[in-house]
Specification:
The structure is a homodimer. Chain A has four domains: about 10-25 and about 180-330, MoaB/Mog-like domain (Molybdenum Cofactor Biosythetic Enzyme, Chain A, 3-Layer(aba) Sandwich); about 30-50 and about 150-180, Molybdopterin biosynthesis moea protein, domain 2 (Alpha-Beta Complex); about 60-130, Beta Complex (Molybdopterin biosynthesis moeA protein, domain 3); about 335-410, Beta-clip, CATH 2.40.340.10. The longest helix of chain A is centred in the C-terminal third of the chain and has 19 residues, at about 305-325. Chain A is about 20% helix and about 30% strand. The two termini of chain A are about 35 Å apart. The radius of gyration of chain A is 31 Å and the shape is elongated. Chain A has a six-stranded mixed beta sheet, with no helix packed on it. A six-stranded mixed beta sheet of chain A has the order 14-11-15-19-18-16, sandwiched between helices. A five-stranded mixed beta barrel of chain A has the order 20-23-22-24-26. By secondary structure, chain A is an alpha/beta fold. Chain A is built from seven helices and 26 strands. At the A-B interface, helix 2, strand 13, helix 3, strand 20 and strand 22 of A face helix 2, strand 13, helix 3, strand 20 and strand 22 of B.
């Protein structure tokens, strides 16, 4: 048996090759209540102006500004209050000279009024109030349509439905919305060493942790998963289960079996099902053997069986693909600069991703490895909310150095990641 | 009628006053599958060492390092392969001199072996392989317990259950876990101007958007909500509904009715139910009249009826309180530095929070207001993933200035926010 030679490609190129083949899913219509986190498949128009009518942004008195001209501290001008309205109740009054309407925040400006005097700017008396300054036309008024006009596009196709979108849809009375379907994900843990949560732990065995971890990673981004039975290292069994999973899901994530070991059957599975392997070696540590294959709009992520490598592979490749399939615009991991909190002396022959705790403080952003840093580490993932990125060809990082860090709970528009 | 005078307190002090009164809820036990995002109410111990046994981190051959001493390019040492194991299958062989076991990643190191030779380091022949360098004891071995030992505390009480925690719990075979209950939230939109999504829009009316927005904000952090009927500005009705909501929920969020207008009944509601008002005026724009009150472990958030102010109030006060009640350690908003992408000329008499789009790029972090910047703006929330913070007493910010920004989808340990 000889060792298969693979050509490692740069991380950035690997990510782009995944993004390039992935297509978004078809749109469908669902109720606004169920739409949170989906991506809009249509532009949404304003069904009326916002504000819907000229309204008062303060509690005070609506006046005609002309009546206020000439008011000074020595020449206070008096107004008679002829009506009293709160939000939701238009006044039936049309102001005459010297008249005012007591008006609350959000209430429509009455006919004949063109300015609002705030309570603090008045001295009240029995029939009304006096003021000591003149007001301009339009002073203290929120004008009809000043935020947007009827028929304006207020939500763009491609926008993720967040709390603000929900507020806008509610504002305009929309009850249904057209969104892109989300991909569904199949999870298959492979490896004869793996047992389930309740199975006895025979010698040489470990419990499957990658499967539950990936379920959780998907749930974090509101993606449904189906977990298949753990697969022993058995070629025909793996082919059958991957085929079955592909028929039922857009994305099939396997863990383990992607290296060049004698029982690493995933490369043979891709061959057997005639999937195009986009790459099977990436210039990164851990997870250099991470493999992505593609067939008929289905994408197969062959993630490492080592938990830290599996975790990194998910964030670098699977999550952006999921985002693209659900038609999101922000599909790439967010990378920011941080100050290293610890020395990291090792050489980095490939780009190194270190599970890290990123802390945000008044002094700046800091990053420290979050625990034991090996491909097979699992506990180190717990305290990580990001990954330190050390470029290939570097070594000897010291506390205080500036480094790039990837935030695992953000996605970005930015394509040009220097990975 | 006279205007009630309120004393505005700094934002930071307001946040701290909320955090101070809030207590976490009681723990309970639930299945690991349901536990994502809850906070651990107990330390969790390793039930075995990780790695569980000495294992091979590579595909190659397990040897006794002593047999390799003296190997060079000119003096290659030969090994005979006597067994072949994959992960999950311990070898029954005990190595004798000059023997090796072909071993795959993750498989247990056989008896008598103390080093692993990677495939790339060998030349294979009919009965085995030769090597050209000597190996040290322990070379290329992942040692039993090198990540953690049995009975080590691997998860700390207070840790949020993320994908890494799920992986650790799965690794150790835990099927149930003790976590803190999450608070439940009641949402009550108040204001005679508000109508529901299907109601006709009479003059002076607008549709309730704050209620659905807050539901979505809570769902984003996996908190269940109950939405009550929209309340007209009616004192007794408001008292009754708030009382009812308090009996059923830990947190009651109202929108509207917190200012000093004639129909702003929330101050009177707090009085009527004998709740302690923590503050009713904050040195911030928008949302300066945001009010928080407290009674018998129930907390009442009187958020503004203006969408942008409501949104800001939720992120500044409600979200940290929810995090604390569910016993999270990371309860505060994350604040980082960004470069302003646009001029912002207005004066900032109070600390100003501007709904903003924060962009992460290779050049750095940029922030730009995400739309029309008024308290009652709603569309501007859509594109915001943060808020620009302009301190009180400042004015005349220009494009290129460094500013603090709050990331609305992160929480932090950091207490000392310079707000």
């Amino acid at each position: 048996m000889s060792v298969e030679m693979r050509t490692p490609i740069p991380v950035k190129e690997a990510i782009e090759s995944v993004i390039q083949v992935v297509k978004h899913k078809e749109p469908f219509t669902l109720s606004v209540e169920e739409s949170l986190n989906y991506i809009l498949a249509e532009d949404v128009q304003a069904t009326y102006d916002i504000p819907r009518f000229n309204k008062s942004p303060y509690d005070g008195f609506a006046i005609n500004s002309q009546d206020s001209q000439g008011a000074t501290g020595d020449n206070r001008i008096a107004f008679k209050v002829v009506d009293h309205i709160g939000a939701g109740t238009p006044s039936n009054v049309k102001l005459k000279n010297g008249e005012a309407v007591r008006i609350m925040t959000g209430a429509p400006i009455p006919d004949g009024a063109d300015a609002v005097v705030m309570f603090e700017q008045t001295v009240e008396n029995e029939h009304g109030f006096t003021i000591r300054k003149s007001f301009e036309q339009g002073e203290n008024i929120s004008f009809k349509g000043e935020e947007c006009r009827e028929q304006d596009i207020v939500l763009d196709k491609g926008q993720q439905i967040n709390s603000g979108v929900i507020a806008v849809l509610a504002t305009f009375g929309y009850q249904h919305v057209k969104v892109f379907q989300k991909p569904t994900v199949a999870i298959i843990a492979t490896g004869s060493e793996l047992v389930g949560p309740k199975d006895p732990l025979e010698p040489g065995k470990i419990r499957n942790s990658n499967g539950p971890m990936i379920e959780a990673l998907c749930r974090d981004i509101n993606i449904e998963t189906t977990t298949y039975e753990i697969q022993e290292d058995n070629l025909q069994g793996c082919i059958d289960i991957v085929k079955k999973a592909m028929m039922q899901h857009d994305i099939v994530i396997t863990t383990g079996g992607v290296s060049v070991g004698d029982f690493d059957y995933l490369p043979k599975v891709y061959e057997a099902i005639d999937a195009e392997v986009l790459f099977n070696k990436v210039q990164m540590r851990p997870g250099s053997v991470t493999t992505v294959a593609y067939k008929d709009n289905h994408i197969l992520f062959g993630l490492s069986g080592n938990p830290s490598a599996c975790y990194s592979g998910f964030h670098l490749f699977t999550k952006p693909a999921i985002q693209k399939m659900m038609a999101a615009q922000e599909i790439y991991p967010v990378i920011i600069e941080a100050i290293l909190n610890e020395d990291f002396k090792k050489a980095n022959p490939f780009t190194r991703f270190i599970r890290a705790k990123i802390s945000f403080s008044n002094d700046g952003v800091y990053a420290a490895p979050s625990g034991f840093n090996k491909s097979n580490a699992v506990v180190a993932i717990v305290k990580s909310n990001g990954m330190i990125i050390l470029p290939s060809g570097t070594r000897g990082y010291a506390e205080g150095d500036k480094v790039k860090v990837l935030l695992t709970d953000h996605q970005s528009y930015e394509r040009a990641l220097n990975l």
